[in-house]
Task: inverse folding
């Protein structure tokens, strides 16, 4: 890590909180925006944090992308999990370097990207998706973030069973999560944490009823996030906020004699 931009590095060009560009620094070409264009060859060798000027004299800040930038700026065809929800999911599931994680519902690969970043270098994410076009999008997003080597993408219906054993955690993001609880339970270690994402209360209710058959410490939460307009002498809460995005349900795998007999 040199702290300077190398050829083909991904960089973040920052204008304002709502205007950021995640691009690759190339020897040729330029970024064209509503505030002017910027030649890429002028970026290579620059120190992160430097000030750059567009052809129209506007200032862009040269920043090193974080995992949030790769998640939120990735190609998408589906609604992705918001960072506010991702944070609690990874804390509750305990995903860390070396973890084996099951993901049901790859989608565009946003959650997959975060999980892969956490489990590397010795862990692995096994992600299951039924739609081939989503697998391709997720693959491109993972390659862009340099994380594809830590993920196995499976084009398979998870309801038919999983090719994983003794996994440390599971994240489920499909429309009928209650239908994959049984195969996920079989693939997890005892005591492992499961997390499921549902957009509606009715889905969460049906999910909890199914989870309580084989998991304990089952709880459902909703996270709301409101910013603060911090200005001298007139600081106040933002008038807009990120409200409902999803309900998050968690549980821990346990064994019962009847389960062991049928396993």
Result:
């Amino acid at each position: 890590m040199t702290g300077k931009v190398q050829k083909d590095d991904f960089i973040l060009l920052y204008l304002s909180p709502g205007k950021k560009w995640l691009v690759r620094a190339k020897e040729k070409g330029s970024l064209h925006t509503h505030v002017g264009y910027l030649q890429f060859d002028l970026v290579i060798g620059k120190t992160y944090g430097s000030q750059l000027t567009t052809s129209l004299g506007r200032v862009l800040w040269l920043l090193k992308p974080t995992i949030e930038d790769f998640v939120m700026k990735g190609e998408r065809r589906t609604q992705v999990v918001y960072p506010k929800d991702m944070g609690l999911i990874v804390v509750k599931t305990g995903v860390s370097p070396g973890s084996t994680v099951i993901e049901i519902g790859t989608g565009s690969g946003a959650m997959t990207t975060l999980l892969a970043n956490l489990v590397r270098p010795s862990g692995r994410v096994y992600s299951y998706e039924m739609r081939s076009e989503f697998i391709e999008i997720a693959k491109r997003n993972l390659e862009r973030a340099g994380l594809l080597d830590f993920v196995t993408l499976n084009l398979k219906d998870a309801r038919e069973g999983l090719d994983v054993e003794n996994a440390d955690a599971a994240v489920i993001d499909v429309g009928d999560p209650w239908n994959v609880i049984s195969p996920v339970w079989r693939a997890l270690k005892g005591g492992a944490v499961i997390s499921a994402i549902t957009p509606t209360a009715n889905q969460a209710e049906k999910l909890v009823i199914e989870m309580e058959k084989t998991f304990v410490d089952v709880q459902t939460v909703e996270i709301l996030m409101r910013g603060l307009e911090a200005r001298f002498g007139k600081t106040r809460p933002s008038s807009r906020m990120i409200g409902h995005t999803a309900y998050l349900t968690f549980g821990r795998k346990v064994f019962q004699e009847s389960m062991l007999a049928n396993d």
